[in-house]
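User: I'm putting together notes for a lab meeting next week and I want to include a structural view of one of the chains we've been expressing. I don't have a solved structure, so I'd like a prediction I can at least talk through. The sequence is below, exactly as it appears in our construct file.
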Amino acid sequence: MDEGLLSPMTRLGPVHLRVTDVPAALNVWCDTLGLAPLGEDVAQAELGVGGRTLIVLHAGAQLPLPQKSRDLFHVAIHVTSRRDLAHTAARLKASGLRYSAQDHLVSESLYVSDPSGNGIEICFDTPERFLRREVSPDGRVALIAIDGSAHSGLEPLDVQGLVRDVGNSGHVEQRMAQDAFIGHIHMRARAPEMLMKFYLGVLGFRPHIQSRTFGMFDCGTERRPHMVAFNIWARDELREPPPDAAGLDHFTVELGSAQELAAVERRLEAADVPEKRDGSVISTADPEGNRLRLVVQGG
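Assistant: Thanks for the context. Below is the predicted structure for the 299-residue chain, given as structure tokens.
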């Protein structure tokens, strides 16, 4: 493998979010979405599945993340079966929370926000429905299904049909599936090309969709092409969030080996990107200030 590219083993680890009220946030993250509390004190709450931490909520934000702020758009927790997604849909319907649902062809997704304005996606990948992606000369992106039909990737999802996958018993699982994982993270951005120079040229992700017309730039690995994404849909309305707002504190990139971590550190140094090494953890930030930590899996 090219030393400049992250290995297919690369995955996303815990995502840390700032919130205005931890107990209120737990009503969404635990009671509705089904994450299990793994540890909690007055300052933070660790949430996850199967003993693995997926989300860490940090108290102290003074106001919710304003809409159209440059910051988090959503963090995506992926489930591995459509039935798992159906149970989430059933819990959302029963909760009374406002939520939305979209069919992206390559995935089916449910969207909701916590009381602090942190966006959340629960996603089930459906790559078997996808044939190819077509980009027109003017940059427009179309997703072609295996039957040859073209899709925008933004069609509404049939939630009623999805909920039928819960089964005839009508029993709704109250906990998220034990094999759920952080599949991608999506931010709002001002200068996506500059961000891609960092994520592709320095960190070593592979490019996926890079389209101003579509309004999204994303990257990932050979195994998971969509891991870190940025949209520019708010365009000129995008504003810097207040320093005491909720939103993304940092996200975690888990690498396959210490050698890979060292290679990323060399690229950060060569690009003159500020970074801090603390044992086996490298902390840095992208050009728009989104903070991340790079660690070795199992380290």
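A couple of points you could mention at the meeting. The CA atoms of residues 35 and 48 lie 5 Å apart. The radius of gyration is 19 Å.

User: Perfect, that's what I needed.
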